[in-house]
Amino acid sequence: MNSKLPEPVIMMMAARDHRLHHYLWHQVRNLWWEFSDSDKREISSLGWEPPRKARNPQVNPETGRRDPDYHNDSGEDFLYMHRVMIANVNEKLAEVSDPTYPTIVGWQNAPAPDDAEFPVPPAWDTGNAGLNNILNVVKSDEFYQERMKPSNDQFKDPSYLRTVSLGELGARIEFTVHNWMHMRFCSQVPTIRPDPDEFSTNIDPKWDDPAYDWLGDSYSSHVNSIFWKIHGWVDDRIEDWKAANNIQGPIPWKGTWVGDMPTHPVTESLHAMLTTPLPEGGHDDHHTHHDEGGDMAEVLKITIRSGKRFHFYDDLLPHNSG
User: Fold this and answer.
1) Given this model, what pLDDT does residue 261 score?
2) Each residue of 7-60: pLDDT tens digit?
3) The domain containing residue 50 runs over which residues?
4) What's the pLDDT tens digit per position in 207-234?
5) Structural domains counted in the chain
6) How high is the mean pLDDT of the chain?
7) pTM above the 0.90 mark?
């Protein structure tokens, strides 16, 4: 099977609404406790408050950061939203009907350092010493042997999967192998999109060029074909968890927050394929409409104004480095 996405899918993912959605979804759920109360109220009024925040409200005094929340089912939101993204791309792939790329298929395992088909791109001088160090570490053979492979194997181990909820599994994957893969397999680009300063109100449209597909940026990572190998791997762990816990049929999701999906909304029929009926009195917080750009543009302004930014590599930075 061809590993490069067909051009129509790349163009769909490179569209500004898809870029903004993926970027904002990661920003607001990771940075919620960093925002001011007034910013939180504005974001909530625009329908973008994540019902389950990805991180704890308290700062860990040892790291100066907010640790991931493993117990509030935000990890289910991570798994569910990306499963919806895969379903939407598969829908586009069916329309494109390219026999060399019929559907999203993830890696069976995180590629080893000697993988001929998916070699680890070399590190490069990004102009940022902290990021340079991260790339050198996460791309090393030692990192694969000491951290990547053991975590890859654990998340596939039925004995481990029986000890965690789906929400905890999703959160632990998100903040380890998922983030590591984004950085390990990112390649050098001519320029990395800079964070907009707090006086900006927008992201420059030049970053909407389909050529900008850096895996280390949530504004661009999903344009990159490797993103879908990563998230295919992530998505398969849901099925491993189901099998380990003897769960038959659709998953009784607790976390279904996707924000306002662009172009391809989470329709009731799609949601029905991904979930079971809600328990009596349950609350379904997936969105069944799509954002026309206005709300996302306003949320973007708020997040930029806040001066707070989330990156896939934040937790790999030295402690207390900001």
Assistant:
1) 81
2) 999 999 999 999 999 999 999 999 999 999 999 999 999 999 999 999 999 999
3) 7-316
4) 999 999 999 999 999 999 999 999 999 9
5) 1
6) 90
7) yes
* Residue 100 CB coordination number (10 Å): 9
Asked, for residue 227, whether it belongs to a domain, the answer is: yes
Tens digits of residue pLDDT in 268-310:
445 544 554 333 333 446 544 444 456 999 999 999 999 999 9
In a domain, 321, yes or no: no
pLDDT band at 2 (very low <50, low <70, confident <90, very high): confident
Three-state secondary structure along the chain? Answer: CCCCCCHHHHHHHHCHHHHHHHHHHHHHHHHHHHCCHHHHHHHHHCCCCCCCCCECCCCECCCCECCECCCCCHHHHHHHHHHHHHHHHHHHHHHHCCCCCCCCCCCCCCCCCCCCCCCCCCCCCCCCHHHHHHHHHHCCHHHHHHHHHHHHHHCCCHHHHCCCCHHHHHHHHHHHHHHHHHHHCCCCCCCCCCCCCCCCCCCCHHHHCCCCCCCCCCCCHHHCHHHHHHHHHHHHHHHHHHHHCCCCCCCCCCCCCCCCCCCCCCCHHHHHHHCCCCCCCCCCCCCCCCCCCHHHHHHHHHHHHHCCCCCCCHHHCCCCCC
Rounded CA separation 53/47 (Å): 14
Structural domain includes residue 322? no
Taking each helix axis from N to C end, the angle separating 16-31 and 74-96, rounded to the nearest 10 degrees, works out to 170
Amino acid code (one letter) for 131 = L
Q: Which residues are CB-contacts of 182 (< 8 A; sequence separation ≥ 6)? A: 215, 216, 221, 227, 230, 312, 313
Residue 66 counted as domain residue: yes
